[in-house]
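DATA CLASS: polypeptide
GOAL: derive structure tokens

***
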Amino acid sequence: MLKFLRKKKIQVPDNYKNLIGQVEYEIFVNQCLNVLKELGVDVISYENGDITYKGKNEDSHYFLDNLVRKYVQIEKENQLTEIKDHFKKLQETPHAYDYLFKDFDYAKQFLKVLVKPTDITPKIDDFVTRIDYPDLLTVLVLDFEDRFHYIRKDEANLWGVDYSKLFEIALDNISQETVDIRKHLFDDKFDVYVLLSGDFSASFSLLIDTHMDFAIGAYGSLIGIPTKGTVFIHPIISNDFMDLTSTLYQEMEKFYNEDPSNISMDFYWFDKKSLRLFNKTLNDNGTITISMPDELKKIVNE
């Protein structure tokens, strides 16, 4: 199968074209396939940044989005080492997970959540998820041995604990993570809090009502979550805050295109109770128009 894959024409996915050229991408993919062969991974197919391989019980996937973003940012002589380290960390440790799903009292310390796009895996309905940010998923994971294990429903059911309780525990664990929160002034008038961490800024933003009241204005908060490690939050206190979106969008775009684990280029409104999506329209000339949710528009103009 691997021999067949090498003969197949490798094309740069559209969402990678701003990161890597065709020739370099072919080298990258072939290096990934060679490393997986050395690790004894039974690769089934490769397409559009997704390597499908034969897992323990069913076909599984390696998504290359994070890896390719790291790959292009490091020195050429270190790129192959990065690929090897990446896939070695991702090798399954079935016996360890078998134990974790038999001992909830021990396993619960490793529960976390990640905010992800809805297309993260073709069989997402098999996993424990919920929706906090519209058009995104909050995914329940085990943060164990330097890798995230996405928890399937059949695995979680072994614990006999309600999913809502699992998310409660996971978010409490997220609250213990170290996230650097920095206050910046944008356009000489708008306070913006920037959340920075390796993995959990987007996850930590779900705790805005309990851990970041300083980032909630009279009309709630404007939130952008370009990547898992970077979040922008503006406390809305005036009706001219939409002037900020143009500058903020450009900042978000840099992180979205360059950093690992990109999530969204949308804006969200925290209305002090829940998260809502700002309207985004792609115009014929290629520009984008951002507009407020109707309810927010109503209250800021009263």
